Amino acid sequence: MNQKIKDMRKMTLALNNKIENLIEIGKIESDNYSLNKEEYNPNELLLEINEFFDNKKDINGVNIKENIFLPINNILYGNPLKIKQIILHTYYYIIDKNKKGNLQLKVEHKIVGNLCRLKFYFICKNKKQIDYNSDSLDYQIIIKLLDLMNGNIDIKYIDNEVTELQVVINQKIINKYDLKNENMKYISKKLKNYYDASNKRIIIFDDNREKTSILKNILKPTKADISIVNTIDELLYLLGTEKTYDLIIIDDIVTNIENTTITNEDILKTCNSRNLKKLFDYEIPVIILVTKNNKKLEEKYLKMGFNDFIIKPITYKKVIKKFKNY
């Protein structure tokens, strides 16, 4: 009886997915899917995509490998929501064809004139080849969205065991001086009211260099003086110099790569604002990045002496909302 209920639930979910996909296709075909363009930080988009893939690890028997994202040093103009939809539908299209396999997402970018060419590589290790399939609703949505955004898709089968599905989308690069087109029509606001922190010094502390680099790029438009440290020794050294700092952002899971006898708990006890004030004789606000929305964990960090917390994934708006309080 229980198995029948489970089977019925699976069938219902599958049917709902098909209905939602058909509605989505209908919206695109009826031109209700307007291409609303905006300025955005591409590193925030990559973090959201990475978070989605992290949450999908080992689901449906597919082993999702570590994803590779290189920070992008530009503010872009385009439609990040449509990009996310393309990536998600590509994921579901692959999962439907790639049972019990491995999947890795690799993102590259290339600057071509005033465009940033985003390349999303879905690398699938499975002897069953993934090919173009116009009967798939996910594939139909991908094609229609790519047509809308002048993007393209390419599928290669390598050495009879690896399928590489590549999605390419161009987005315009925006800078402070690109405010009008050749006809002098107003096309963009000045970098969308980015918070000016040019008089602030910030330290980002995490042992993961890739994550610190992405966070630094998210905060780059603020013009803050940003320092990155990967060990507690580096942090304490910086704080011991003549410079003073306005904010420290620390991950809640940090290992000391130079001294493994120092635990994560030891690092957090040392690096909270209350303890740093005792060590350096001035107030340094410390915000901790929390892995999950866990009230007990959040309360623990506040009691430990941290000023505030931000729930991952990290976005520009989340950080600036907290930063303005200090």
Describe this structure in words.
This protein has 326 residues and is of the alpha/beta class. It folds into 3 domains: 1-33; 37-188, Heat Shock Protein 90 (2-Layer Sandwich), CATH 3.30.565; 194-323, Response regulator (Rossmann fold, 3-Layer(aba) Sandwich), CATH 3.40.50. The chain has helices at residues 2-29, 42-55, 80-97, 137-148, 209-219, 232-239, 264-271, 273-280, 295-304, 316-323, and strands at residues 38-40, 63-64, 68-69, 75-78, 102-112, 115-125, 152-158, 162-174, 201-205, 225-229, 247-251, 286-290, 308-311. Strands 1, 2, 3, 4, 5, 6, 7 and 8 form an 8-stranded mixed sheet that branches. A hairpin with a 2-residue loop joins strand 5 (102-112) and strand 6. Helix 2 packs antiparallel against helix 5 and helix 3 runs antiparallel to helix 4.
